[in-house]
């Protein structure tokens, strides 16, 4: 039905209203979409900027700072720990051990980490009885029971409650005991170490020395054992070996708490080499014992002694009356005990140095053993008067008698015939004023005044053993040359180095010096047999007590005045009493040198070292079953009527 005019108008108006409303909505929507797009654009810009910044940082971190940051991260979670190398042993000529190492463990605790873990456990378990104090008290009781006499419960509690972040608890314990403790208390750390053992206690301790642990870097717990003095120090490079390296992961970079199962070796430790010495432990023991007894008997301040092979120069014994026990820390407190005086401490030897004049006189042909010399009771050299030890008028001595009776005046008369130049040359050939090259630390070469510093009276001192100094090792070496047909061999105390694989590397051959001809040396050696002869009247030498039945013995006594520290002049009471002897004189095997430091010369033992030589020589002859001499030495005239 057709619409009327009114209806048409109404539809038109409604259409208009709808058209207006739709337009209004589109306009409003258009305005709203534009605002949203603006906000979205801003967000997108911000996001893009953030992504660009993040990308730039990522490039910086991954490219430019990667190495630095990676290294820093690695340091935070890894720890490098040294693996100690097995230190080589020191053995005598027969393989007896003088020093060796045994594997031990050292226990420690990271107190900071332990406190932290205990606090965290208590926070998660309110009212728990498992606190730091309770845990450490239990551990202290358990460890003390495992190590009776080593550490007490109270000592451990004190260590557990130190204010430090880290502490060592106990060292040098058996690996099996340490394993039991760590198994029960996993928070206790354990380090592999080695303990240096010296089975002979004081035996050869001045020669062998001492080695102990040194903390090279306390922050990373790098440890190794090194020599402090003696051969342990001077041959440390041979003995110590090369430590290995172990890497472990830690929980963080401050507590250094090792994550179990992360240990890995990156470099194996290389053991050190053994040192084989020329010493004989039995000889060394007897030498130390007999020397100490005689020093006490003579009331001396000290003393030294050497036993040397007459042919090779190898040292079988090197003793000092003052010594220490490396196993007893209390004996290490006195530094005087740690001195190896046979090589470090020179002294004025007195008449044992007359061997130089005797050798030079025979070698120069200015005298023979039987030639005679008119010897007054004194002689003036420049402004100084030298006398014999006993008063006498002019007497006729044989050359042998001059030295067997130890006449100062007769020696100086012969030295004047020898001349200063030849005397000094002979001194040098005997090795005086020079280190022997034995290879022991702190060795002294002694003092021989150079010719440019001589006074007018110097040549009145040197031939009789005053005004120059030598060690007991140098003194023994002089007589070794005479025992060895005039060939002086540098003394040795290290025979060889034994590598970890068993390879034996002998020490370099010692240097030699032909001091005099074999014939001269034999003549002097035979002359010196008269020192120990017991003849009638004035035909006894100065040391019959040094003689040994069945053996010919050559030797020389000496009395050297010491400088009085109060007056800085020669003392009338302080002396060096010396003796050097060759056993046997006809077929030399050993040379023995002895020095007594300021003994009481009013005592028989303090007036001569001859009896001590006799005791040492008697032991050596039995120990090495030395064949007896072909016959007794002939008794020769010393002082003519």
TrEMBL record:
- Region (Disordered): which ranges? 534-564
Q: Where is the Penicillin-binding protein transpeptidase domain?
A: 304-616
The answer to keyword Ligase applying to this record is no
InterPro entries per UniProt? Beta-lactam/transpept, Beta-lactam/transpept-like, PBP_dimer, PBP_dimer_sf, PCN-bd_Tpept
- Extent of Polar residues compositional bias: 554-564
Which keywords does this chain's UniProt record carry?
A: Membrane
Q: Which Pfam families match?
A: PBP_dimer, Transpeptidase
Which superkingdom is the protein from? Bacteria
Question: Where is the Penicillin-binding protein dimerisation domain positioned along the sequence?
Answer: 83-252
- Where does this one sit in the cell? Membrane
Q: Does the keyword Glycoprotein apply?
A: no
What does the similarity note say? Belongs to the transpeptidase family.
Q: What protein name does the entry list?
A: Peptidoglycan D,D-transpeptidase FtsI family protein
């Amino acid at each position: 039905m057709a619409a009327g005019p009114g209806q048409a108008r109404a539809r038109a108006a409604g259409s208009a209203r709808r058209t207006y409303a739709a337009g209004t909505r589109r306009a409003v929507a258009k305005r709203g979409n534009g605002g949203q797009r603006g906000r979205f654009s801003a967000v997108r810009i911000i996001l893009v900027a953030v992504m660009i910044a993040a990308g730039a940082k990522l490039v910086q971190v991954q490219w430019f700072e990667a190495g630095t940051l990676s290294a820093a991260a690695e340091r935070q979670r890894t720890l490098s720990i040294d693996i100690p190398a097995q230190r080589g042993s020191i053995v005598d000529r027969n393989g007896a051990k003088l020093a060796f190492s045994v594997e031990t463990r050292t226990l420690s605790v990271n107190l900071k980490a332990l406190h932290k873990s205990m606090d965290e456990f208590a926070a998660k378990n309110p009212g728990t009885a498992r606190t730091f104090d309770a845990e450490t008290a239990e551990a202290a009781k358990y460890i003390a029971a495992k190590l009776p006499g080593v550490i007490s419960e109270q000592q451990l509690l004190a260590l557990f409650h130190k204010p430090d972040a880290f502490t060592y608890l106990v060292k040098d314990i058996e690996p099996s005991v340490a394993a039991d403790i760590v198994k029960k208390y996993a928070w206790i750390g354990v380090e592999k170490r080695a303990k240096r053992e010296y089975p002979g206690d004081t035996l050869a301790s001045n020669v062998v020395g001492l080695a102990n642990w040194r903390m090279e870097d306390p922050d990373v717990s790098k440890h190794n054992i090194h020599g402090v003095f003696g051969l342990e120090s001077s041959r440390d490079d041979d003995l110590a070996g090369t430590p290995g390296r172990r890497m472990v992961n830690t929980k963080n970079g401050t507590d250094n708490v090792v994550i179990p199962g992360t240990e890995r070796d990156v470099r194996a430790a290389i053991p050190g080499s053994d040192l084989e010495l020329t010493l004989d432990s039995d000889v060394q023991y007897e030498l130390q014992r007999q020397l100490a007894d005689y020093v006490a008997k003579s009331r001396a301040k000290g003393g030294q002694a050497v036993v040397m092979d007459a042919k090779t120069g190898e040292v079988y014994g090197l003793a000092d009356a003052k010594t220490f026990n490396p196993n007893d820390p209390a004996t290490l407190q006195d530094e005087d005990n740690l001195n190896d005086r046979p090589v470090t401490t020179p002294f004025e030897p007195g008449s044992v140095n007359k061997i130089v004049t005797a050798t030079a006189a025979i070698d120069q042909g200015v005298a023979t053993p039987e030639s005679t010399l008119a010897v007054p009771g004194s002689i003036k050299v420049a402004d100084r008067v030298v006398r014999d030890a006993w008063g006498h008028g002019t007497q006729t001595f044989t050359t042998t008698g001059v030295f067997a009776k130890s006449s100062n005046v007769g020696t100086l008369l012969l030295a004047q015939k020898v001349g200063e130049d030849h005397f000094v040359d002979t001194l040098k050939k005997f090795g005086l004023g020079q280190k022997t090259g034995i290879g022991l630390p702190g060795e002294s070469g002694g003092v021989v005044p150079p010719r440019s510093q001589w006074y007018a009276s110097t040549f009145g001192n040197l031939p009789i053993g005053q005004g120059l100094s030598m060690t007991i090792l140098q003194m023994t070496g002089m007589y070794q040359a005479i025992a060895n047909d005039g060939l002086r061999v540098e003394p040795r105390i290290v025979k060889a180095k034994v590598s970890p694989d068993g390879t034996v590397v002998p020490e370099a051959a010692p240097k030699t010096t032909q001091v005099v001809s074999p014939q001269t040396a034999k003549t002097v050696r035979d002359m010196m047999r008269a020192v120990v002869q017991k003849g009638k009247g004035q035909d006894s030498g100065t040391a019959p007590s040094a003689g040994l039945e069945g053996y010919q013995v050559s030797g020389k006594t000496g009395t050297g005045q010491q400088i009085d520290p109060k007056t800085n002049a020669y003392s009338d009471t302080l002396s060096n009493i010396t003796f050097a002897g060759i056993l046997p004189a006809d077929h030399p095997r050993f040379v023995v040198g002895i020095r007594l430091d300021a003994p009481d010369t009013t005592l028989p033992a303090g007036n001569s070292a001859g009896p001590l030589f006799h005791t040492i020589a008697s032991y050596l002859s039995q120990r090495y079953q030395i064949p007896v001499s072909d016959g007794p030495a002939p008794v020769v005239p010393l002082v003519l009527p």
